[in-house]
Amino acid sequence: MANSRQQQAIETKNRLLKAAELVFLEHGFQNTTIRLINNKAETGHGTAYVYFKNKEDFLIKIMEDTMEQFTKIASIPFHPATSNEAYELVSNQVKLFLSLAIKKKELMKVFKEAIGVSKEVEARWQDIRDQFTASITKDIMYAQEYKLADSSLSPSLVARLWFYTNEMFMWEVIHESPSNDIEDIIKHMTTIYMKGLYSNPQQ
């Protein structure tokens, strides 16, 4: 009986999450209410509060699930033997990152809105940033260890600079058509990054 109740609880929570995503997409973050989510999920009044504290709690869970897909890109194995291999790997990661942002752009717009008005969502976004920069830092340290990258540079600082560059263009491509072609953006971002960090990019 307990297993049956647990399964029902999981199904209800998932139904609420799916409903919340639809409501956020339709109404935006600020205009979304728990009542709208309950109505969309066709659950009883107050059911949402059994599983989530507020609408921020809903959005954070959706944001975490969505950004997990981005995290998989950042976690692609990075073990280049040459600067040229590093260039190809970095370029591919940027392409996958921006392409996924475009694919998820309507949801990303909701995240951006929420980050701007909710301290709770903003704090969780900063945690996600930290996860990305930690992953990038490891890649830079690998490149420095194998004499591909400039060892005089701080891996963590370079990682932050690199992620913020990616983030800036991510917000740009989801809100409007960028002034440059995506492939052109990728080329310029990767080349500048490589020339700044790596000893002999594309050599």
From TrEMBL:
InterPro entries: Homeodomain-like_sf, HTH-type_Tx_Regulator, HTH_TetR, Tet_transcr_reg_TetR-rel_C_sf. Gene3D superfamilies: Homeodomain-like (1.10.10.60), Tetracycline Repressor, domain 2 (1.10.357.10). It holds the Pfam family TetR_N. GO terms for molecular function: DNA binding. Residues 33-52 bind DNA. PROSITE patterns: HTH_TETR_2 (PS50977). Coiled coil: none annotated. Keywords: DNA-binding, Repressor. SUPFAM superfamilies: Homeodomain-like (SSF46689), Tetracyclin repressor-like, C-terminal domain (SSF48498). Residues 10-70 form the HTH tetR-type domain. PANTHER family: ACREF/ENVCD OPERON REPRESSOR-RELATED, TETR-FAMILY TRANSCRIPTIONAL REGULATOR. This is Transcriptional regulator, TetR family. It comes from Alteribacillus bidgolensis.
